[in-house]
């Protein structure tokens, strides 16, 4: 004898062997290609941005989500010769927002920057002396 019972939010269904002997009468519904919650990639078939795409890493829903959406939309729909060159203000607003949340949007570590600048300084004298040698030959 099959039966169903509810335990909190869960529904428990007990089925008998006889219940499973009958073929299913369930009808499959075709997937909606315009469903924005379906994993479709970054750009939906209609050309809109899929803000639910995991490829965005949650940027569209964080504390700077609106600024991110504004900047990304501007870039995506930009028709300028240098794509996105008309979006500087939106990207600046996004960057300013991100700087308010350094734990969520970490900037380059200062130690990394110091290492890079010291490597650049070390490379500069060698390049200069190499250039002098070429000039004197």
TrEMBL record:
Main location: mitochondrion
Keyword line: Disulfide bond, Mitochondrion, Oxidoreductase, Protein transport, Redox-active center, Translocation, Transport
Compositionally biased spans, kind Acidic residues: 29-38
Biological process according to GO: mitochondrial respiratory chain complex assembly; protein import into mitochondrial intermembrane space
One CC-aspect GO term: mitochondrial intermembrane space
Subcellular location, record wording: Mitochondrion intermembrane space
Bias type Basic and acidic residues, positions: 113-122
Recorded superkingdom: Eukaryota
Keyword Protein transport: yes
GO MF annotations in UniProt: protein-disulfide reductase activity
Ranges where the CHCH domain occurs: 64-100
Pfam family, one: CHCH
InterPro entries with a match to the protein in the record: CHCH (IPR010625), CHCHD4 (IPR039289)
Renumbered residue ranges of the record's region Disordered: 20-39, 102-137
Keyword Zinc-finger found: no
Name recorded for this polypeptide: MIA40 protein
Organism: Caloenas nicobarica
High-level lineage: Eukaryota, Metazoa, Chordata, Craniata, Vertebrata
